[in-house]
Amino acid sequence: MRTDIPIPILVILTMFGALGLGVVVVLYGTILRNRWGINLEPVSCPRCGTLPPHTREPRTVRQAMWGGWTCTTCGTEVDKWGQEIASVAPRRSAKAKEQTHISLKKKLVIISAAIYFCLTLFFDWMRPTSGGLPSTWDGILFQAGAAILETALFTALLYIALVHLARKVRNSTRGRESNQNLGQ
Ligand SMILES: [Zn+2]
């Protein structure tokens, strides 16, 4: 087993790690429609249907970083998915609750994906039969690519499992709540 990893390989490892993580985050964001995702669909103001201006001039830091715009007709703040950003929403507590739920799930998935990716690379390269780190560029690219694919698959499965679990938990809490209501 080789333990002395040359610096160029370390740099490549880190780069691929960051790249893989970035891909996972963007994919996940696109599925969940959060700020990290990429929206390729055309959007319009959810209140009045006005299209966003062609040259988007960010009015807030949030808009500059995460996209979205302020409607030129009615002044509604819209995110890149075409959803209104509620400043003072009436159903705020319910929404906030949902938000924490989503961000917790998101964190869990991203952290698991990152750990999985690192472990996959580590075990690929430390497996006794593989003879340590690949010595050619092709080998490095191939293994890193395989690890990214594996991570993407793992993340998708984990996400599905989490969604399923969350639905189950929510249903059971709801059932308990309604039981309590009946008891009172
Ligand atoms: Zn509008």
Write the SSE topology:
Layout: H1 7-32, H2 61-66, E1 69-70, E2 77-78, H3 92-126, H4 137-183
Antiparallel strand pairs: 1-2
Helix pairs in contact: 1-3, 1-4, 3-4
In short, what is this structure?
The chain has 184 residues and is mainly alpha-helical. It has helices at 7-32, 61-66, 92-126, 137-183; strands at 69-70, 77-78. Mean pLDDT is 80; it is low at 88-92.
Characterise the protein shown here:
A two-stranded antiparallel ribbon has the order 1-2. It is an all-alpha fold and 184 residues long. The chain has 2 domains: 7-38 and 91-183, no CATH class; 40-80, no CATH class. It contains 4 helices and 2 strands, in the order ααββαα. The structure holds zinc ion. Zinc ion (ZN) binds next to loops.
List keywords for this structure.
4 helices; binds zinc ion; flat
Main beta sheet: 2 strands, antiparallel
Number-wise, the strands total 2
Q: Uncertain runs with pLDDT below 50, 5 residues or more?
A: 88-92
What topology, given as strand order, has the largest sheet? 1-2
Average pLDDT metric? 80
Rg over CA atoms, rounded to whole Å, is 22 Å
Q: What percentage of the residues does DSSP assign to strands (E)?
A: under 5%
N-to-C order of helices and strands: HHEEHH
Bound molecules: zinc ion
Helices, by number, come to 4
The number of domains: 2
From the spread of the alpha carbons, the general shape counts as flat
Tell me the distance between the termini.
Answer: 67 Å
Q: Which percent range fits the helix content?
A: 55-70%
Q: Give the assembly state of these chains.
A: single chain
